[in-house]
C-alpha cells in the first residue's frame, strides 16, 4: 500500500511530479505545477528539445529542479479547469512510471479539495503491481511507489486529510479487486475466494465495523435449492460456494442496498467449450463478485451510513462427465425452471439464484445492483472501456450514472427492449438461458429481469470488457484486472 500525505512548503521527496500541457498545435507546451511555484522557462526549453508534447499518458523524466528527478505527466490541452479524471489519470500514469521508488511529491493543478482527492486517488490507484506469482524473476520486478505526497495549499485543512484517507481506502479495495482478478484459477477457486475475502474482512474492521460473513458450501446449496449455482459448478472438482457479506452501519434507519456479483472463478464455457485462443482472460470472470465484495468492505471501512447486503455466487464452469448438458433443466432458487441450452451462458444462472436469495432477505432493500462480466456482446457494443447499465428504474440508473461520472469510470445506459424477451421462451421450461443472438447483452439483461421484482429498483452492470485490460496500461489502469465498478458503487452509496 502506498502511503498518502498532503503537504506544502519544502519538497522533500526524490521525485517531483508536475503536469505538462500543450498550449497550441505547433508544439507549444507549458508546465502546470498547481500550488507549487516553479521557474519553468528553462525547463520548457529543454522539454521541447526532448520532444515532450504534454499529451495524455506521456511521462517524461529529467534530473534537477527543486528535487532529484522531475517527472512531467501529460494533461493534454491547456485549460483553466482540468477535469478530476484528467488529474486522476495524469497522477496515475506518473505513479505507474515510478514503481521501484520510495517517494514522490505530486504538484498538479488541483484548485479544490475534490481536485486533491482526484490526484490522491490517481497516485494511489496507479501505484499497483502484481508480482505475487513470480519466482526466480521476482527481484527483476519493481515494487509499487511507496509514498505519494500531494502538494496543495489546502494541506492544513481537515478536508484535505479526510480526502487522502478516503483515497487510500478506495485504492486499497481497487487493488483487492485487481489482485483477485489477476490470481489464476489454479490459486483462486470458489472456496479460496471466500477465504481471501475473509482475510480482507478482518482488515476492513470485521465484526466491529458492522460486517458479517456467511458462506454456503455445495451441500447446503444443493439441499436449499440453489439450482443455478449447483448446475454451473457441478462439472468442476472445485465445488461452488455462495458468499454473503452484510454491513450494518452504526446509524439507525438507513437505506439498504443489495449487491450481487458474478463469481465464475474460471469460465471454460463448460460443455460448450470456448476456443483456446484468449480463454486465459476468463480468469477475470469473477470480476463482478470481487467488485461487490470489495465495495462492501470499502463502504464499511469508510463507515458510510447505508446498509449493504452483498452476495457472491461462486462457481467454476468446467466441462466434464458431471457438467450440465445442453438441454438439461435446472431449478433456480425460488422455483423457476431454466432450460440450459448453452452452458456458456452460465453467469445469468448463478446470478439468478443470488438475485432471488437477495430479495428473500427479511430486511427490506431499497435497491439491488448486480455486476457481471456477462456477455461478449457488451464488448462489441461499447468497447473495452465503457460498461453498460440496464435497469427497471430510470431514476436509480440516473443516480448511478451521475455517481460513476464523478469517479471517472465510464458507464452508459442500455435498454431492455421487451420484444426481445420472447426469444428466451422455452418449449419445456419456464425460460431458456439463451435467446436472440442480436442484442445479446440486452437479452442477458432481460433474463436477469425475470428474477427481480418489478417494484424493486434494480441495476444490471455488464462490465465484460472493462473489467480486464488486455491492451496497454493507461492512466491509473494497469494491464490485467482493472477493479472497475468498485469505485462507482462506493460513490453511489456516498451520495445515497
Ligand atoms: N464470461 C462470458 C462473457 C465474457 C466474454 C466476459 C468476453 C468477458 C469477455 C460469459 O459467460 C459468456 O460466455 N457469455 C456468452 C453468452 C452467450 C452464450 C449467450 C457470450 O457472450 O458469448
Ligand atoms: Mn460463459
Ligand atoms: Zn462467464
From TrEMBL:
It is an enzyme of class 3 (hydrolase). It catalyses: Release of an N-terminal amino acid, Xaa-|-Yaa-, in which Xaa is preferably Leu, but may be other amino acids including Pro although not Arg or Lys, and Yaa may be Pro. Amino acid amides and methyl esters are also readily hydrolyzed, but rates on arylamides are exceedingly low. Residues 176-490 form the Cytosol aminopeptidase domain. Its EC number is 3.4.11.1. One of its GO terms (biological process) is proteolysis. GO terms for cellular component: cytoplasm. One of its GO terms (molecular function) is metalloaminopeptidase activity. Residues 41-134 form the Peptidase M17 leucyl aminopeptidase N-terminal domain. Belongs to the peptidase M17 family. NCBIfam families: PRK00913.1-2 (NF002073). This is leucyl aminopeptidase. It comes from freshwater metagenome.
Amino acid at each position: 500500500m502506498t502511503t498518502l500525505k498532503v503537504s506544502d512548503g519544502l519538497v522533500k521527496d526524490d521525485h517531483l511530479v508536475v503536469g505538462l500541457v500543450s498550449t497550441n498545435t505547433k508544439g507549444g507546451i507549458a508546465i502546470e505545477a498547481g500550488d507549487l511555484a516553479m521557474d519553468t522557462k528553462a525547463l520548457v526549453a529543454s522539454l521541447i528539445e526532448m520532444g515532450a508534447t504534454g499529451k495524455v499518458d506521456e511521462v517524461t523524466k529529467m534530473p534537477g529542479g527543486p528535487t532529484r528527478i522531475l517527472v512531467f505527466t501529460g494533461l493534454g490541452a491547456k485549460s483553466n479547469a482540468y477535469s478530476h479524471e484528467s488529474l486522476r489519470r495524469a497522477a496515475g500514469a506518473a505513479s505507474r512510471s515510478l514503481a521501484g521508488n520510495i517517494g514522490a511529491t505530486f504538484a498538479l493543478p488541483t484548485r479544490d479539495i475534490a481536485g486533491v482527492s482526484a490526484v490522491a486517488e490517481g497516485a494511489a490507484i496507479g501505484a499497483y503491481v502484481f508480482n505475487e506469482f513470480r519466482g526466480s524473476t521476482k527481484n527483476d520486478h519493481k515494487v509499487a511507489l511507496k509514498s505519494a505526497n500531494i502538494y496543495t495549499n489546502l494541506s492544513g485543512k481537515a478536508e484535505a486529510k479526510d480526502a487522502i484517507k478516503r483515497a487510500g481506502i478506495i485504492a486499497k479495495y481497487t487493488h483487492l479487486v485487481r489482485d483477485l482478478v489477476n490470481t489464476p484459477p489454479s490459486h483462486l477457486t470458489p472456496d479460496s475466494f471466500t477465504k481471501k475475502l475473509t482475510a480482507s474482512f478482518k482488515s476492513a474492521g470485521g465484526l466491529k465495523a458492522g460486517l458479517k460473513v456467511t458462506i454456503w458450501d455445495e451441500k447446503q446449496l444443493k439441499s436449499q435449492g440453489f439450482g443455478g449455482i449447483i448446475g454451473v459448478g457441478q462439472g468442476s472438482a472445485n465445488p461452488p460456494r455462495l458468499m454473503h457479506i452484510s454491513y450494518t452501519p452504526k446509524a439507525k434507519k438507513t437505506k439498504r442496498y443489495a449487491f450481487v456479483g458474478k463469481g465464475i472463478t474460471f469460465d471454460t464455457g463448460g460443455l460448450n467449450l470456448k476456443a483456446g485462443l484468449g480463454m486465459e482472460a476468463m480468469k477475470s470472470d469473477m470480476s463482478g463478485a470481487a467488485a461487490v465484495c470489495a465495495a462492501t468492505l470499502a463502504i464499511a471501512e469508510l463507515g458510510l451510513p447505508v446498509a449493504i447486503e452483498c452476495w457472491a455466487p461462486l462457481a467454476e464452469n468446467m466441462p466434464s462427465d458431471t457438467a450440465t448438458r445442453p438441454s438439461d433443466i435446472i431449478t433456480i432458487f425460488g422455483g423457476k425452471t431454466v432450460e440450459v441450452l448453452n452452458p456458456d451462458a452460465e453467469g445469468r444462472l448463478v446470478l439468478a439464484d443470488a438475485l432471488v436469495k437477495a430479495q428473500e432477505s427479511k430486511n427490506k432493500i431499497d435497491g439491488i445492483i448486480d455486476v457481471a462480466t456477462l456477455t461478449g456482446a457488451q464488448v462489441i457494443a461499447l468497447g473495452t472501456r465503457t460498461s453498460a447499465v440496464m435497469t427497471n428504474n430510470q431514476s436509480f440508473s440516473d443516480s448511478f450514472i451521475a455517481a460513476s461520472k464523478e469517479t471517472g469510470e465510464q458507464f452508459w445506459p442500455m435498454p431492455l427492449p421487451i420484444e426481445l424477451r420472447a426469444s428466451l421462451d422455452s418449449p419445456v421450461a419456464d425460460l431458456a438461458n439463451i435467446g436472440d443472438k442480436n442484442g445479446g447483452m440486452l437479452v442477458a439483461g432481460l433474463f436477469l429481469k425475470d428474477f427481480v421484482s418489478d417494484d424493486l429498483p434494480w441495476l444490471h452492470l455488464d462490465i465484460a470488457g472493462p473489467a480486464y485490460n488486455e491492451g496497454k496500461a493507461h492512466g491509473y489502469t494497469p494491464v490485467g484486472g482493472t477493479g472497475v465498478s468498485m469505485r462507482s458503487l462506493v460513490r453511489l452509496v456516498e451520495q445515497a
